[in-house]
Amino acid sequence: MNVDERDKILLGLGTGVLLASSLRVFVAGAYSSLEKTFFYGMNFPSGLGILLLLLAAFLVGRIVRKGGAAIMAAYALALLATDATEYVHLVAAFALPVALALVKELDVKYLTMGLVADLSLRVLAVGAEPADFPYTKVVLALFLLLGAYALWKEPGTLKKPGFGLYAFAALLELGLIYPNAVMRYSGMTVYYLPEFVGFSLLLALAILLGPHLAKKPAVAMALLIIGSATLFLKPLSLAGLPIALASTIALVESAKGSRGGIIGAAYLFLVATLALGAYVGRDIGLPFMEDRLEALILVASVIYALSAYRKNAEVSLPKAREIAGPFLGVVLASVIVLALFNAGPTYAEAKKGVLVWTYNVHQGFGPYDGTFNGYELVNLLAEQKPDIWFAQEVVGGMIGNGYQDVPLFVSAHLGYAYEYKPAVEGTYGIAVFSHWHMKTESELNLQSVGQARPAQKVSIEELGITVVNVHMGLSEEERAMQAEELLKFAEAQPVAQMIAGDTNAEPDERAIEILTRDYRDAFPERPPYTFLWERSGVVDKENIDYILLKNGWPAEVKDYGCLCDVLVSDHRPVWAVIELP
User: Please, are residues 545 and 531 in contact by the beta-carbon 8 Å criterion?
Assistant: First the structure.
């Protein structure tokens, strides 16, 4: 391998990782910042990152290559220093257009190496965000720094990416390159590490073989649209979306233009906003988008295909070793994680004294600054060892949170079994975790005026009990309505002995009065709070998370409490030791 070829590979690896990572971090940081503005009136950084993205899209064609290398290195060092996306996304706003400028210059075969390297990092992180865990964060930064080194040595200025490449980035950021997103979009609510690894290998092949479709752009366009349309025919999308991904890669060379870069950046922001609207549309003024992610992916596919229409381009096809090398990297990552982590649940024998938690994990974010909380969550659970965990705001592959898969990485690290009830789009909802065999008896979304609010009823075989997990709405009237519906749901056969979750209701509210007609609070005395957000003089302290036991059920509460000093989420873990009859 000559020096020039080596530098192209290094630059390709760095570019693919930079593109995927900066997309995740930019969207997550902008989402977290705007959420903080919406709820608490915090005006920084708020929408600053969006303005910086538009500015960077305007300037990128004027940036010298050494300047691009410096931005790339700065992004790597920022991730090494912190995963506070509210601040790192301000750097990602510049890194993202730089990544697209490099995509414009590179042969697509080198880009595929970088995208597969990012996929390998996702495998090593067992579905978590690579920037969150120390061992993957270092490897992520190394890829970026090596790419910056290769770019630093080149003279000249960066080329300006046009609308087509921003449309390419938007389609990737809708989840096509994330195995957990594709599986959950397709209706797989429960799976474990082997399935994740297997599907990661499939997506790696789709990425690496995509350039071979580039010789027939019309076929690639048709396959892209057909593949995306299979989202309306689940589970056919398990095959259709990898085909759509391969077709997306195939059209990159045809999408390389120089016009419309600023419009493209605005389009990328619009697509990300609409995708978030699929989850929380009624809360952010986009009710028409709720549960419409499939339609958005299809429309984005059509727009990307049109941006490449009738633009034939020369494509340098990868050699066999250029496919085999990156693919073997994913295989190696897969072997490592299957050897080191739990391939499935580790089951325990039944016992009488059960430690029960309810804990809202804030969509994979820490309480402040948009930090990812997966690493801290795994350590907390490993230390405290709850037997049953009722979890809310559980993300399984959502655009606003770096496509983290909380059920997967919790299971892989700690051996929990889980039952997942997505509220919308298969990737955001509630889950029950335990080390016993479980079965979902029934589930529903409660009547809501805001975002969808889920409830699930799960039976735990070895314990012989049935439990209900819930996440209720934001308005008092809405919660009272939901409490009546929840009570009927819990008392339908099989009757639930326990209701737990985030009710968003204070103890003196009508909703709690309704629930405690037939269920009793496991806490004789309530903790001082179960939710706390405190920053810059703004304090939001609430007592809203509960463990409720069925009246007449002869279980005994042996101990109870709140880990009120734990800062993994904006909520606090609420626990009770329950002696089963």
Answer: yes
